[in-house]
Write a structure and sequence with these properties.
With 163 residues, the protein is an alpha+beta fold. The protein is 47% helix and 17% strand. It has two domains: 46 residues, no CATH class; 114 residues, Glutaredoxin (3-Layer(aba) Sandwich), CATH 3.40.30. The strands form two sheets. It has a four-stranded mixed β-sheet with strand order 5-4-6-7, sandwiched between helices. A hairpin with a 2-residue loop joins strand 2 and strand 3. It is globular. 20% of the residues are buried.
C-alpha cells in the first residue's frame, strides 16, 4: 500500500473510532482502561482527559501546555466559569481526602478569616470548597477513571505512560 493511501486509511479508521466510541481517543500508553485499538502501531486508549482548575493559574497553564505539546486531547474545566458539581467534589474528597485537596498557599486561603481556616474538617470541607472552588489545589486531572492532583512533567509522563 502506498504511504498516502495508508495515511488516508488511518484517518478514516481514526474518524470511525471517534464516531463509534463516543469518547475521546488519547494517544498514550498501553494499559487497557476503556478499551484500546491499535492502528498502524499507535495505541489509542479510550477515555476522556479533563483538566480542572482556573484559567489564570500558572500550574494549570503548564499542565495544559504539556498535554498540548504531546498531542494529548483533553478538555479544560474552569472552576470560575463552569462551576463545580457537588457529586464530583464528593468523589474527589472520597478518593484524595480533604487535606490533600485544599490549597493552603493560594490567595483564596489567605483571604479566609482565621476562624474559618481553623474549623475546616472532613464534615465542613465540601461546603467550603463548593463555596470557594479556587481553594482546590490545582490542577485536578481526571484521566482513565483516575484522579490526580497537581502537576509536574515527571508525574504526567508517568500517568500517561501507564494510562
Amino acid at each position: 500500500m502506498q504511504p498516502l493511501s495508508q495515511a488516508i486509511e488511518f484517518a478514516i479508521l481514526a474518524a470511525a473510532l471517534l464516531v463509534s466510541s463516543r469518547v475521546t481517543p488519547v494517544v498514550c500508553g498501553t494499559t487497557v482502561v476503556y478499551g484500546t485499538t491499535v492502528v498502524y502501531g499507535t495505541t489509542f486508549v479510550y477515555g476522556t482527559t479533563v483538566v480542572y482548575g482556573i484559567r489564570n493559574c500558572d500550574t494549570v497553564t503548564k499542565a495544559r501546555r504539556w498535554l498540548d505539546d504531546l498531542g494529548i486531547v483533553h478538555r479544560f474545566h474552569d472552576f470560575r466559569s463552569d462551576g463545580l458539581e457537588s457529586e464530583r467534589l464528593a468523589r474527589w474528597l472520597s478518593e484524595l481526602g480533604w487535606e490533600q485537596l485544599i490549597n493552603r498557599r493560594g490567595t483564596t486561603w489567605r483571604q479566609l478569616d482565621a476562624k474559618t481556616r481553623d474549623r475546616i474538617s472532613a464534615t465542613t470541607a465540601a461546603e467550603l470548597l463548593l463555596a470557594h472552588p479556587t481553594l482546590i489545589r490545582r490542577p485536578v486531572l481526571e484521566q482513565a477513571g483516575r484522579i490526580h492532583l497537581g502537576f509536574s512533567p515527571e508525574a504526567y509522563a508517568h500517568i500517561f505512560r501507564s494510562a
